[in-house]
Specification:
With 496 residues, this protein is an alpha/beta fold. The protein has helices at 8-14, 88-92, 129-134, 151-159, 210-218, 226-238, 242-245, 247-253, 259-279, 324-340, 361-364, 370-374, 379-401, 467-477; strands at 29-34, 37-42, 51-60, 78-79, 99-105, 168-171, 193-195, 201-203, 346-350, 415-423, 426-428, 433-436, 443-448, 458-461. Helix 5 (210-218) runs parallel beside helix 10 and helix 10 runs parallel beside helix 13 (379-401).
């Protein structure tokens, strides 16, 4: 007997026409974009949806005059790699077997008019971001704004489907900590660009406030609008559960579904009911898909730490920091639950801004900012700066690995995550000097997840592969085919 597919819309009509978000089921057909074209594809065996994350750290992984390999790159390749100082969070979190390092990467450069495919101009800061996340060569100047859609948006086009949020964009570091210490905004504060229907490339502004991210993701309104909040609370008090209205229809529907679909639907109805009760303030949510704890108010914004053009303040151990450790924890927890509840399947998180001036005293006891450490020949300090990013990346991977799917797998089994950095260490074409932190030689990208057969817990050494090739591999792992901009090759060693 041929398999019978029905659409999500038809299934909704079958339970009374009430607008209830539904999970992906075997009986439903799904649509995905492959290589920019739309085609229908059925989920084989009811496999859970794929998820994708792009994270970025605005610091080089090496310091001037030091050897980055000493405190970051493992001595050998393959599985069970040794842990260097920058990798200690992997051991601390029990995530060594979940995270793979790809080292020996190189983002190429060229002079004006001769920038190679996927490359950058000789200018360093901000210039290295766009080519990594879009695969497109940058302009001749310092403007590293991507010249094509970024990886997260390409994946969102392919996998977003009818999820509540087509993609999520978050940023951890709120302020520049330089001079007047302006709130980061515009192109320098983004990690995501999408192509509109009219062909225009537009930046996606990230949510910076953990509080706002929480409210937006789980309630659909922001606390900045008291009237909207009051109306929502009134509706919650007055309404009965939408599922109560359709209980008879759902009871008729469930026996028609296969075993896996029935379990998933029953779990989904329970989760919706729990969410409604939780919003009513009656009971906490239960199960893997749950409302995270309220994060409370955002940590205070830190003041300027770097004196610039005659403005700013002298160094202080108490400024230049806005509780980024807590901010990163909350935002990553929201991504975890958004993936778990299938609210979104693609996310980006800008952990620190390029040329990051965040104070490292609270994070490692260093009386310097992240950027300053790279120019102070302080490889231990730089390793601790890298470790900050690795910790939150690995913590998210660990949480996803502990979150079950209805088929017995885990959310991480269907996820691909990448963490890249502003630069590595080596030759600086702008300054004409070697062994510099202003270099895109000897770069490293971290990968986690097992989607598409990605290997986990390996150290992979490349011969100057493009960093975007690692990101392209992650895209291929979640089923998005084709190139990433001008970068066409993935990393075969990433697949088992």
């Amino acid at each position: 007997m041929a398999k019978r597919n029905i659409t999500r819309r038809s299934l909704l009509r079958g339970i009374g026409g009430v607008a209830v978000a539904l999970p992906a089921l075997e009986i439903m057909g799904t649509t995905r974009l492959v290589g920019g074209a739309s085609q229908a594809a059925a989920d084989v065996g009811g496999e859970p949806p794929k998820r994708f994350l792009m994270a970025f750290g605005g610091v080089s992984t090496g310091a001037d005059g030091a050897q980055t390999d000493q405190l970051l790159v493992p001595d050998g390749d393959g599985p069970s790699y040794d842990i260097k100082r920058a990798l200690t969070p992997l051991d601390d979190l029990g995530a060594r077997d979940l995270v793979t390092l790809v080292t020996g990467l190189k983002l190429p450069w060229g002079d004006a008019g001769a920038i190679p495919p996927g490359g950058r101009s000789v200018y360093y800061h901000y210039n290295t971001v766009g080519p990594q996340i879009s695969g497109m060569r940058g302009p001749d100047d310092r403007d590293g704004t991507p010249r094509g859609p970024t990886c997260d948006q390409i994946v969102a086009d392919a996998l977003g489907g009818d999820t509540r949020f087509r993609s999520l964009a978050y940023r951890v570091q709120p302020s520049s900590y330089v001079g007047r210490n302006e709130i980061i905004s515009g192109k320098t504060g983004r990690l995501s660009w999408r192509r509109d229907a009219d062909g225009t490339l537009r930046g996606v502004d990230p949510i910076v406030s953990p509080r706002l991210a929480y409210e937006s993701l789980f309630t659909g309104f922001t606390p900045s609008d008291p009237a909207a909040l009051a109306r929502a609370q009134l509706l919650l008090r007055q309404r009965q559960s939408a599922l109560d209205y359709v209980r008879e229809s759902t009871n008729e529907l469930l026996p028609r579904l296969g075993y896996a679909d029935r379990i998933r639907m029953e779990q989904h109805f329970d989760e919706i009911r729990s969410l409604e009760l939780r919003l009513d303030g009656e009971v906490p949510m239960m199960g893997a898909c749950a409302l995270p704890p309220d994060p409370g108010e955002d940590p205070r914004l830190g003041g300027s730490i770097v004196e610039y053009r005659g403005e700013g303040t002298p160094y202080t151990t108490t400024e230049g920091y806005s509780g980024e450790d807590r901010r990163a924890e909350v935002l990553c927890d929201l991504i975890h639950m958004a993936f778990t509840c299938d609210l979104s399947r693609s996310a980006s998180v800008l952990m620190t801004q390029w040329k990051c001036y965040m104070n490292m005293f609270a994070l490692g006891g260093w009386e310097d900012d992240m950027h300053g450490l790279t120019h102070a020949a302080n490889q231990r300090g730089v390793a601790d700066a890298v470790a900050f990013h690795v910790k939150h990346f690995a913590r998210l991977a660990k949480r996803l690995s502990e979150t079950p799917e209805v088929d017995g797998s885990t959310v991480l089994d269907h996820t691909a995550m990448c963490l890249s950095f502003e630069g590595g260490q080596g030759y600086d074409p702008e300054g004409g000097r070697g062994n510099s932190s202003h270099s895109t030689e000897r770069m490293t990208v971290f990968v986690a997840g097992r989607a598409g057969g990605l290997v986990a817990g390996h150290h992979i050494v490349t011969e100057e592969a493009h960093p975007a090739s690692v990101i392209l591999s992650a895209m291929h792992a979640v089923g998005v085919e084709g190139p990433l901009g001008e970068v066409t090759r993935d990393i075969p060693a990433l697949f088992g």
